[in-house]
Amino acid sequence: MGEFKLWVYAVAALVPLLIGSIWYNPKVFGTAWMKAAGLTEEQLKGGNMILIFGITYIMSFMIAFSLVFLLSIKLGLCKY
Predict the structure, then answer these.
(1) I need a surface site. Which of 8, 23, 48, 77 has the fewest CB within 10 A?
(2) Using alpha carbons only, what angle is made at residue 58 by residues 31 and 45, rounded to the nearest 5 degrees?
């Protein structure tokens, strides 16, 4: 298997945040999502955004890291 490069995983973990910022934009699906979830803009403004985005980034990093090993096993690049 290849060399471990931390910056690749760090950049890959940003992809879900980028897609989410587009997806939940009020001009795309944001207002439809708020109506379906029964939320208002005031309720959303009360959330701790640093905590929400921090946990999302950490989980995305873990997913990116795990996918490399799962795919390398599936493709036969490493043997476990």
Answers:
(1) 48
(2) 30
